[in-house]
Amino acid sequence: MDDKIIVTNRTALQAKYGAAGFAKIKAAVQDLIQADAERSIKTRLVFLDSAVDMRRYRGVPVTDPTSSRQNKNAVDAVFKKTNPDYLMILGAPDVVAHQDLNNPAYAASDDDDKVAWGDLPYACDAPYSKDVAKFKGPTRVVGRLPDLTGAKNPAYLLGILTKAAAYKSRKVTDYGKYFGLSAQVWRKSTELSLFNMFGESKALQIAPPSGPSHTAVRLAPLAHFINCHGAEASPAFYGQKGQSYPESLTTKAMKGKIKPGTVAAVECCYGAELYDSVTLASDMPICQEYLRQGGYGFFGSTTIAYGPAEGNAQADLITQYFMLTMLDGASLGRAALVAQQKFIEQVAELDPVDLKTLAQFVLLGDPSIQPAAVTKTTGVPKGMDPAVARQQARGERRTKLRETGNNLEATKPTASRPQKGGRKSPNVRKALANIARQAGISPRREFTSFAVKAPPAARAMANKGAPLASRYHVTISSAGREKTPPGVGSRVAVVAKEVNGRIIGYRIYQEK
Amino acid sequence: MTAGASNRPQRVEGLTGAVISAPFGTGSKSEHQAVWLEASGRRLVLRRKDGPAFGDRSLDQYVGKRVECDGFILDTTLLAERIKVVS
Q: Does domain A168-377 have CATH number 3.40.50.1460?
């Protein structure tokens, strides 16, 4: 039985790199497989477009590498047959497609992402769908080691494959220091995040004035946490103070300063977007520059991300969960899966913004890399092969993760689809108008209603004291709050929760 | 829709439309006042290909005008290599 499956697309790689380039990539993958074997991980390379390979898994070969459906079906066939401990997707979305989940928070001109691209469905047993609510029970450990989208030269991919093969776990204390970077307007939220992860936030860099150039010493810590602005196809993150948005970090300014072994958790919009820097003739994405320099992993968002003005939620939480689990000694892939599961667990119901968050955060990096080694309290008796013991322990962890994922799938209510013709009672209308007024937007602002879909087990668990929500009402408004500078902090998103005909809570997202 | 479509820049030449200033990413982590191009029935964030993604004041001169652009269309953005006022 294979512990780790690497999936890729031979035709797509050959089209990008030619026969000679492909041969080099295949050799580099063999080196990684050998290195994995020395770490007691049995790895197999599977070409999703190969009839021979897919016959082994009773699957249908992929004919279009950019087809989300074909790739999902093929990966599911592999899992059904082998259920590996790790799935590594090798290549950018022009080799193995991201999944094309509809963005439940889509609102033209406010959240323009029709699709929340990501790899979440690859981590789930549920069949292909565009509805993210179908993927609320992730159970599989998944990561993507991406080449450059649109590339013709395999040097980048060869480099990161070599680095993945040569990785070494470090003492967890080596990850005790961090590089923290925040837009000035989100300082409080980022301080809280850093405190939750590292117990203090003294080293936090605020942009402005910090960036875009940082000294090598400042970037030297192996744990990076960034909470800044980002934009589509942009090799820069941005800080913010008032209406000033200076660059806080750029691909150019990072060169030669990222230490091998660095792990980054990044909240920025588009932080993990694998845009085609080759066709655009621009600098490569920051996330890929991390990997180029030997960073082990980057956990970030493919599209527009969300978080509240104060405290922590959405992007703040899922990135923290990833970092905390990695610091607990997990592999990168397990850290990503636990982050997804914890994120789902911590809410009573997944509202449209929660669902987008879940869909859009991806792990870039070899999922079997274990950056921080933590001393285990369970010993291995003499005569027992440590490799067998490790495999046994990993199997037990996977069983537990599967139980958790299955439980979430069976019990977690979701609100992903707008309700057509859903009428609001006068009480609900009045409450929404009051909330809108409080958020600084017109009380006549229309809210879109999302009916909560609860699995039978969730309904059975609900009680009089804590009944299930019946609907969520969402509005994303461009109307301005008073007393804020024009264009900045003047737009808000409001999510209100209805239970039995009454609005019992709401959240306002702004300036995050 | 295929995933690759989101990552494949589409080259355009002579794309004409009206430029407006309006919020982007309301309530999100990239919320800001952006410059948009309304062209061919869709609205795209207008950026200079080699300019900053946020706060590019050099685009203000086009707001309220019709322009013709060459560049690349992405999911929601036009990365312009050339912008010319046409009226």
A: yes
Give the start-to-end residue ranges of the domains of chain A: 168-377, 426-509
| Of A389, A411, A227, residue with least CA distance to A319 | A227
- Top pLDDT among A380 and A347 is at A347
Tell me the per-residue pLDDT of A9-66, one tens digit each, with 9 for 90 and over.
Answer: 999 999 999 999 999 999 999 999 999 999 999 999 999 999 999 999 999 999 999 9
In tens digits, what is the pLDDT along chain B, a chain of 87 residues? Answer: 344 445 689 999 999 999 999 988 877 877 888 999 999 888 999 999 999 999 899 999 999 999 999 999 998 899 999 999 997
Angle between helices A315-327 and A352-360 (to 10 degrees): 40
Residues of B in contact with A149 (CB under 8 A): 7
**Cβ pair B28:A247 closer than 8 A:** no
Distance from CA of A299 to the nearest CA of B (A): 16
Angle A242-A244-A246 (CA atoms, 0-180°, nearest 5)?
135
Going by C-alpha positions, the residue among A384, A332, A356, A371 that lies closest to residue A472 is A356
Class of domain B3-85: mainly beta
Question: How far is it, in rounded angstroms, from Cα B22 to Cα A163?
Answer: 44
Selecting from A240, A304, A494 the residue whose C-beta is nearest the C-beta of B25 gives A304
Six-digit token pair at A434? 């009051």
Q: Which of residues 361-390 of A touch B (CB under 8 A)?
A: none
- The span from the CA of A297 to the CA of A313, in Å, is 22
DSSP structural state of residue A306: B
pLDDT one-digit tens code per residue, A63-87: 999 999 999 999 999 999 999 999 9
Q: Is A489 exposed, middle or buried (0-12, 13-18, 19+ CB in 10 A)?
A: buried
* Nearest CA among A362, A377, A392, A293 for reference residue A329: A377
Which residue among B3, B21, B47 places its CB closest to the CB of A98?
B3
Residue ranges of alpha helices (H) inside A385-503 are: 386-411, 426-438, 456-461
- Return the bridge partners of B61, or none: none
Distance in Å, alpha carbon of B80 to nearest chain A alpha carbon: 11
- Cβ contacts of residue A461 below 8 Å, gap of 6+? A411
Q: Do B2 and A280 touch (CB under 8 A)?
A: no
- What's the angle, vertex CA A387, arms to CA A381 and CA A391, rounded to 5? 100
Nearest by Cα to A39 from A139, A168, A162, A163: A168
pTM above 0.90, yes or no: yes
Please calculate the CA angle A8-A280-A69 and round it to the nearest 5 degrees: 35
ipTM of the modeled complex: 0.91
